[in-house]
Amino acid sequence: MTQSARVPGPGYEHGLHELGTGCFGYLQPDGSWGWSNAGLVVGDGASLLVDTLFDLRLTAQMLDSMAVVTAKAPIVTLVNTHANGDHCYGNQLVIGAEIIASNATAHEMSEVPPAMMAALNRAPGEVGELFRSFFGDFEFDGIEMVLPTRTFDHRLDVDVGGRHIELIEVGPAHTRGDTIAYVPDAKTVFTGDILFIGGTPIVWAGPLSNWVAACDLMLGLDIDTVVPGHGPVTDKAGIEVVRDYLSFIDREATTRHDAGLEAWDTARELAREVGAHHDFSGLGDFGRIAVNVETVYRTLDPNHVTPDVIEQFRRMATLEAVPR
Questions:
Q1: What pTM did the predictor assign?
Q2: What total of structural domains would you count in the chain?
Q3: Structure confidence by residue, pLDDT tens digits, 73-108
């Protein structure tokens, strides 16, 4: 399977893209750290927004671009697919909307407040340089963390202006509470970070088997259009690439864990193998494999101690610095 088969939809350009049947995707190339996508489902006189962006400036730009549609169909519902800030830090700008997320997402959203990200970006020395290399393009000051006003477990059906949207909790996977938003009448799904297209998935929570199951669930849906959390609009072929990558990492890391290899050694070894794999060699941010291997080890051994988040970012940066 080649990556060229994964981009059947609108060109991967910044801004609002009409997907048909009252659905829109808001895309932010190049899809790497913090450059996330969002979605809009338009009904009769009302709209549902899937996710906000990483800071207020970016979210305001997005909402302005949507105004041509939302002037007649205001956003009455906002769904946060998961707790990462690049999908919820802009919530305060969606005034008056009901905010929906899974219970697990709502609990996790308070754990990494914008003030913490602002402090890390301003930190002196190596830590500040490290975090600015990932997140220096974003402005975290002045963000108020606005939490969901409605939560659910497992599934929730939502009606917005006569449009039926199915919210399906598929986490823990990328985070502890990932949700996808399926619009049956448009054969469209907004996946949040259950899909990174053209980039390496990062498994903060796991287990990887849950994420593979989420991909299989989406492959079983009647869908033509897939809007990922990062990267270009795709179709079921894009889902298959993510599923196959995660299955590969789960299988290969488990084999090395069982043979007694340390997690960091496994990550470095698998980074070389992924770089030579014809289906995965072109994925960006391949250093995320360090986090993914840690998650496999932690799943296999509850006593496995994962390094703190600063060390995990340091390891990702170290792998990225090695030529492939």
A1: 0.95
A2: 1
A3: 999 999 999 999 999 999 999 999 999 999 999 999
